[in-house]
Amino acid sequence: MSERGSFTEGAAATRVPQSVASRRIAGLERHLGERLFDRSSRGARLTPFGRDMLPSAKRLVRLADDMEYEAERARLNPLRFAVPDICAVRDLARLDAEARRNGIRLDFQTAAPADRVELVRSHLVRAALTAAPQGDAVWSVRLGLAGATGLLPGTVYVETLRAGRADRSSRRSRIWIQPEDDVPHIRDPLFRVRDAVGLQPAQVGVAATLTAAAAEVLGSTDLLLCSAKQAGELGLHWRPAGEIRPVRGFEVSAAARDDAERVRTRLRDAIARCLGADDREEGAPSSPRD
């Protein structure tokens, strides 16, 4: 206004209706207790008080512009998010696309369960999908046993891996636990079943990597503890376990509660699809290769 000499021209330059600009100036004058402009039929001129206030007004305008710029940068700044290293690239890409539609930009870091907890604790990521028992989980993925042969029964009982007297010298089939499931609420119950039904300790073990576990299963009668979704991706035949119903659970952990809540509420369905935790996971034990 001060540079244009007219409320009408000043309002047009700032893309504000002239009536709105006039009301805002009048309100500011009431707040400050002095007139900022002398109004006449020939236009508007700054009063001496207005000229004294002009440098502060310009600083406020620059500050407002800076705030808008920083706000835009903050909106575009990605949320560094630790996820299980079993997530496929395609599933992460779909999750990222869904997050962008919900106003969140994600920067993924894949890691094992214990590492994801540490990444949050050390503030190297803003949020993470962390392992949780079923009762505390937001997302639950049913696990079963998968093998390379298509002759698996409808339900696989761990006790059927126990060697009989006639075949004690033959290689015993094993169950492999992948690193993602090397957590107490999944691993320990399976170890207890192993001991209760009389399997050898080595018949249920934790693999160093999912790749190593899958290689063992593909080349033998061994079984992999996994989800139906994983079994399909690996070309294995999946069945539920008989003695136990292991569940892979996930929760969102974050240093800031707002980050955790934003991910949990805006991306709940997208994360479920990424993890294979949708309704189909609870369905019949079918496999793409059946």
TrEMBL record:
SUPFAM superfamilies named among the record's database cross-references: Winged helix' DNA-binding domain (SSF46785)
Gene3D superfamilies cross-referenced by the UniProt entry: Winged helix-like DNA-binding domain superfamily/Winged helix DNA-binding domain (1.10.10.10)
Domain HTH lysR-type: 1-47
InterPro entries from the UniProt entry: LysR_HTH_N, WH-like_DNA-bd_sf, WH_DNA-bd_sf
Domain of life: Bacteria
Xref: PROSITE patterns: HTH_LYSR
Keywords noted in UniProt: DNA-binding, Transcription, Transcription regulation
Residue spans crossing the bilayer: none
Record-linked PANTHER family: HTH-TYPE TRANSCRIPTIONAL REGULATOR, HTH-TYPE TRANSCRIPTIONAL REGULATOR GLTR
Family listed: Belongs to the LysR transcriptional regulatory family.
Name this polypeptide is given: LysR family transcriptional regulator
Top-level taxonomy: Bacteria, Bacillati, Actinomycetota, Actinomycetes, Streptosporangiales
